[in-house]
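Lab notebook: predicted structure, single chain.

Context: the supervisor wants predicted structures on file for every construct in the current expression panel, including those that have not yet been purified. This is the next one on the list. No modifications to the sequence; it matches the entry in the shared construct table.
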Amino acid sequence: MLNDVKSKINDKVDAFRQYREEQVRQKRELAETRARAEREKIRHEKEILLALSDKELMVEAIMLLRGYNERITDIEAEQADLDSRMDSAEADVRALEFKNSDQ
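Prediction complete. Output recorded below exactly as produced.
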């Protein structure tokens, strides 16, 4: 009877080990697939850029920089809004603290 229990436990351990190994294999395959797709994307973009003339490259660079500039402007506006909200919240907290200290 003890041998039967040991056998069942070993079977469960082996089944779990196989399950984990399969999960690891699937995750590895997924990571490899993603890495391969990323390398292919980079290779494709490199081919496109290598085919461009100097003027076309400059235009691409300017467009890219303008996009980054727009993103920075948006982030700065959001930061200003958050700063304003923080200042307002801090003022509210100070007012509540002052009100509670008077009582």
